[in-house]
Design brief:
Elements: H1 8-11, H2 28-45, H3 61-64, E1 68-73, H4 89-103, E2 107-110, H5 119-128, H6 132-149, H7 165-179, E3 181-184, E4 189-192, H8 193-202, H9 218-226, E5 231-241, E6 246-248, E7 267-276, H10 282-287, H11 296-306, E8 308-318, E9 321-327, E10 338-341, H12 346-349, H13 367-370, H14 376-388, H15 392-395, E11 405-412, E12 419-424, E13 436-439, H16 445-453, H17 501-514, E14 518-524, E15 529-530, E16 543-545, E17 551-553, H18 591-594, E18 595-599, E19 606-611, H19 625-630, H20 641-648, E20 661-664, H21 672-685, E21 698-700, E22 704-710, E23 716-717, E24 723-725, E25 728-731, E26 734-741, H22 753-760, H23 762-771, E27 779-780, H24 787-798, H25 817-835, H26 839-855, H27 862-872, H28 877-886, H29 903-906, E28 911-917, E29 920-927, H30 933-942, H31 944-950, E30 955-961, E31 965-970
Parallel strand pairs: 1-2, 1-20, 10-12, 20-21, 22-27, 28-31
Antiparallel strand pairs: 3-4, 5-6, 5-7, 7-15, 8-9, 8-14, 10-13, 11-12, 16-17, 16-19, 18-19, 22-23, 22-26, 24-25, 25-26, 28-29, 30-31
Helix pairs in contact: 2-22, 2-28, 5-6, 22-23, 23-24, 24-26, 25-26, 25-27, 27-28
């Protein structure tokens, strides 16, 4: 169809059309009207409501009988700044995918909630005195408005907010399920804690000290069970941030040893905190990755974070104590010439089994070992304080100088009987193994560097494969190898000399086990999940403590335990550099809430209790929200089992069940994704859900970036006010620099979706974000390029609607063959692209078809126009709905059938076959795609150009690759 002549202004990016020439032209104003009308219709009609097979949301049985598809985005946080155009990239992508799935016959569940607890709202409350709920709910209202403006097809009935007591009632309930369970190694699953108590009562499981269970008092019983519970409180090394007044999980601390939020120093400190025993699931978390359709990079991050390694536990006696190490190189025990403990280790911290640090330095202590301190106690205390100010990353940096001090104690090497000095050093962490290592400096570079710095012996026990020999005095570094023979490894009871590493490891492990001083074991890098925060704006723990300090679970009838009002929302903060401070939480200041008299229904009547005054981390609500989306109005259960089975249960190709498609950022690989997997597995083990994994398919979208402009001071200036002149950039006449970076309010380069929608319409914004490039690749935002997709929609509109009259121009005649081929190739390609999230190439194919129709003579055939509208519908749903209605349909395009390609028109009518002689092209033939090898060879040999090129020469061989290649080898 030929384009209607319009004024230059009408062709501009946002310029108004000539009202006389084109009163019905597709403009931003018309787009705004169309989009608002259809958004209102979708909402009132319940267009996107996905029926459940049973329960309160039961719907049309015919619709429920369709194959299901559960599509999800990662929870957004309701920021006060609202959305910029980078935020909805993933939301638009899942919306396009979900729309396509509806049109291909699926019952699609797609909604979006808000992960609304967290530090930003609390900090805003501290600054302004506004209750966090007030500011958070206002932010949610604004974000809902922005998301609605984009035409996202969400089932709003299912949307949840983690701050809603009706929601966090079930977060608290899940916590209690975890608290009231333990991991049974024999069942390889979580079981109710009552089953463990039954074993203690029956005597089938001995108590730690051998006494009968009935002989233990309540405090002792609670202590024993605490060693098994999957949610437990303990005194443990934590990341204490005085500047924030709270403790942080390892994942919330930067590589520089500072808080992710606020950039405050973080110190290691021992505090009593709630933990989740995620380590019990380490093997399953690793093994079950194989069944998931996730990017390999994310799987690798989780495998590395869990860090499974096989080795041996070995005991080194130290007086009346012992140091237990985990090593993967037990074959090198004869080379252990000293030991190193983490500065936080209980044997030097003065608790647990008692300190091994003597009152005075032993005779002959090397002065370089003491750090210049008068006593071992002074040296250890000073070094522990120094180490507490460093992050784990800093402590393990390869390039840093090795530091440490001698504890004054010696341990006994169990294979050689040699006395080896025991040091503390910051390159050993409590977070790995036992927090202690046997140092074999000849075969570990860090140990080698430490040994050189402290003039410790270096004993070669693995024969070097190079020419350095076994005299370590001449070595510049350690020699590490798993493919070598053991040397210098003989003692009174065992010899490993001449054995390979694998053989030596097996022999020494058996020898250690026979003597009860070690055993083969598996270790994990993964640590238990720190689950306490010293904040106000989080889920209260449903836990109370009796007068003896024993923790008791609130009964389900008392849930939700709602947050009380407090006068001051902030935890007490301290000098950011004062590591010796301790937390004081906002909840602890509300005495009327903290101290209560309750009847817990345990037969003990009303008693006085003290509530837990920490709150849960912001990760808690996002560990299970996919389940609440399924059944959000259920007041009696987290989710109805039948509904969960329908949407998330195991099925062919998805043996662990889970969400069908989950889209979000790769930055959550070892935070949210790992935590959610753990919660799902516990709930599955306890019989609450059928799926053992939360998310079957994971897709990581890229990031929309933007240029950041900075003045001579390095201060960001408003990007919208920067001018480009002769390849340079100027702000208010001053030259500024330009770099590509993140988009955000602080960088003054944010573009809001509201701005783009106002100037071009939501459909244009949707198309532009999807057309910018592959979904999983980051790409720069360019407002000037948005007009390209705007013009595509204008051409689409013109191919159906007369801009002068507003009447539909399509005709009820059959299209020509060229148009049919263009149409069905587009249908085939777009369908494949949609299914595989290749939206940029889908748009390219739609554009190609639309351009074909624009250039063709005469009006567009109705059958072609309707199919084109259906192709566009997932991408630009508002204009598709409008055109669908104009084409005479009374039903919504949302549930129309996606077109199916006719294979006869998808296959090219002819393909080009290249004919080569001695590798050089001599002819090109147009042949049928289905031509046989024999027919193609005959056609090539009969081609006049080929006959002339051969010049009567015989043929030794003809290689045929139908239908595209014939290679002739002359005799």
């Amino acid at each position: 169809m030929s384009e209607t002549t319009t004024s230059p202004a009408a062709e501009g990016a946002g310029g108004p059309p000539s009202e006389v020439a084109a009163p019905h032209r597709y403009t931003a104003a018309l787009a705004a009207d169309i989009e608002a009308r259809w958004q209102d219709f979708w909402e009132s009609d319940g267009t996107y409501e996905a029926p459940n097979p049973s329960g309160d949301l039961a719907g049309d049985p015919a619709l429920v009988s369709r194959p299901k598809k559960f599509v999800m985005d990662m929870f957004p946080y309701p920021s006060g700044a609202g959305l910029h155009v980078g935020h909805p990239l993933g939301f638009i992508a899942t919306d396009v995918y979900a729309r396509h799935q509806r049109m291909t016959g699926h019952n699609v569940l797609h909604t979006l909630g808000f992960d609304a607890f967290g530090l930003p709202a609390e900090q805003y409350a501290v600054q302004t005195g506004t209750h966090p709920r007030v500011s958070t709910e206002a932010n949610i209202v604004n974000m809902r408005r922005q998301l609605r403006r984009l035409g996202l097809g969400h089932d709003q009935r299912r949307s949840v907010e983690t701050i809603d007591p009706a929601y966090y009632k079930w977060t608290q309930w899940i916590f209690l399920q975890i608290f009231n369970s333990w991991y049974d190694p024999e069942a390889d699953a979580a079981r109710p804690i009552d089953t463990l108590v039954a074993q203690f009562e029956a005597g089938t499981r001995p108590t730690p000290d051998g006494r009968p269970w009935s002989a233990l008092d309540a405090v002792e019983k609670a202590g024993v069970l605490g060693e098994y519970r999957l949610a437990y409180a303990s005194d443990a090394p934590v990341n204490w941030c005085p500047g924030l007044g709270t403790v942080l999980a390892n994942e919330e601390v930067t590589a520089e040893g500072r808080s992710e939020r606020g950039n405050f120093p973080v110190f290691k400190s021992k505090l009593r905190q709630w933990n989740m025993r995620i380590t019990a699931y380490a093997d399953r978390l690793l093994d079950d990755l194989d069944a998931l359709d996730w990017p390999e990079a994310i799987k690798l991050q989780q495998r590395n974070w869990i860090g499974r390694s096989e080795g041996a536990r070995v005991d080194f006696p130290v007086g009346d104590n012992k140091i237990t190490v985990f090593t993967t190189r037990q074959d090198t025990l004869f080379g252990a010439t000293y030991m190193v403990l983490a500065p936080e280790h209980e044997l030097v911290a003065g608790n647990g089994n008692g300190s091994i640090v003597p009152a005075a330095w032993p005779d002959g202590t090397h002065e370089v070992w003491t750090g210049g301190h008068a006593t071992p106690g002074d040296a250890v205390a000073a070094y522990r304080k120094q180490a507490a100010a460093k992050s784990d990353v800093e402590r393990q940096a390869e390039a840093k100088d090795k530091t440490g001090v001698f504890t004054g104690a010696f341990a006994t090497n169990p294979v050689s009987g040699a006395q080896v000095p025991v040091f503390i050093a910051d390159y050993v962490l409590m977070g790995y193994g036992t927090g202690a290592i046997m140092a074999v400096p000849a075969h570990d570079s860090r140990d080698f560097a430490f040994a050189r710095a402290f003039e410790l012996p270096v004993r070669c026990v693995v024969q070097p494969s190079d020419d350095r020999g076994t005299d370590t005095a001449t070595w510049d570094d350690a020699f590490a190898s798993y493919d070598a023979k053991l040397v210098n490894s003989s003692g009174a009871e065992i010899s490993l000399d001449g054995l390979g590493v694998v053989e030596a490891k097996a022999k020494i492990t058996e020898w250690l086990a026979d003597r009860g001083i070690g055993e083969g074991t598996v270790n994990f890098r993964l640590r238990d999940w720190l689950f306490s925060r010293q904040r106000y704006w989080g889920e209260p723990f449903p836990i109370v403590y009796d007068e003896d300090g024993v923790a008791h679970a609130l009964p389900a009838s008392m849930l939700p335990l709602e947050l009380p009002e407090v006068e001051d929302y902030s935890p007490r903060t301290f000098d950011p550099d004062d590591a010796d401070t301790r937390p004081e939480t906002p909840l602890s200041r509300n005495e009327d809430w903290v101290n209560v008299e309750l009847d817990l229904g345990d037969g003990n009547g009303v008693k006085r209790y003290r509530r837990e005054t920490n709150t849960m981390p912001n990760w808690a609500g996002s560990c299970w929200y996919e389940m609440r989306y399924l059944d959000p109005s259920n007041a009696d259960a987290m989710v109805d089992p039948g509904i969960e089975q329908y949407w998330m249960g195991p099925r062919e190709g998805q043996p662990a069940g889970g969400v069908d498609l989950y889209v979000g950022g790769a930055e959550h690989a070892v935070l949210h994704l790992l935590y959610a997997r753990f919660w799902s597995k516990v709930l599955h083990d306890l019989g609450h859900v059928s799926s053992s994994e939360p998310f079957h398919k994971l897709y990581n979208q890229g990031m929309i970036q933007a240029f950041v402009y900075r003045d001579s001071r390095g201060i960001a200036v408003p990007a919208a006010e920067v001018e480009e002149r002769d390849g340079a950039y100027y702000y208010q006449g001053e030259k500024v620099s330009r770099v590509l970076g993140k988009m955000g309010k602080s960088l003054k380069n944010a573009v809001t979706p509201d701005e783009i929608c106002a100037e071009y319409g939501a459909d244009t914004l949707r198309l532009y974000e999807m057309a910018m490039g592959p979904l999983d690749v980051s790409r720069p935002w360019d407002t000037r390029a948005v007009v390209g997709q705007y013009r595509l929609l204008q051409r689409l509109w013109r191919n159906v609607v007369d801009e002068a009259t507003g009447e539909v121009t399509v005709v009820d005649t059959e299209p020509d063959e060229a148009t049919l081929r263009a149409l069905h190739k587009a249908i085939d390609g777009v369908a494949q692209d949609m299914a595989n999230l290749r939206f940029n190439t889908a748009i390219a194919k739609v554009t190609e078809l639309n351009n074909h129709l624009t250039k063709a003579a005469g009006p567009v055939s109705r059958t072609v126009a309707e199919r084109l509208v259906l192709l566009v519908a997932p991408l630009a749903p508002h204009i598709a709905e409008e055109l669908w209605r104009k084409l005479g349909h009374t039903d919504t395009v949302v549930h129309a059938d996606f077109p199916v390609a006719d294979p006869a028109y998808v296959v090219d009518e002819t393909v080009t076959c290249v004919v080569q002689i001695k590798g050089k092209v001599k002819a090109r033939l147009e042949v049928a795609p289905s031509i046989s090898d024999a027919d193609l060879e005959a056609a090539a040999l009969a081609e006049p150009a080929v006959v002339a090129a051969l010049g009567g020469t015989g043929i030794r061989k003809v290689i045929v690759r139908a239908p595209k290649l014939v290679n002739i080898v002359p005799a």
